[in-house]
Amino acid sequence: MSLKLKTLSIERYNGGVKAKRKYGSNCITxxxxxxxxxxxxxxxxxxVETGGRTxxxxxxxxxxxxxxxxxxxxxxxxxx
Length: 80
Prior knowledge:
Elements: E1 6-14, H1 16-23, E2 27-34, E3 46-51, H2 55-79
Antiparallel strand pairs: 1-2, 2-3
């Protein structure tokens, strides 16, 4: 199941040599990831940190990391 997700960059910082080895760039970005219908429902937002050479790579990686977490949040909220 593929969700339509939006990303919002919260913070960007220099991760150093360790991040450069892991991601190919030392730029690390913290994102808030959410579904468009949950834009104002902050309890359904997930924060993830990821790296990459370009902002697009970092945003795509954030969506991939956050998708299972958001699916778990949806399941949790649907049972309440």
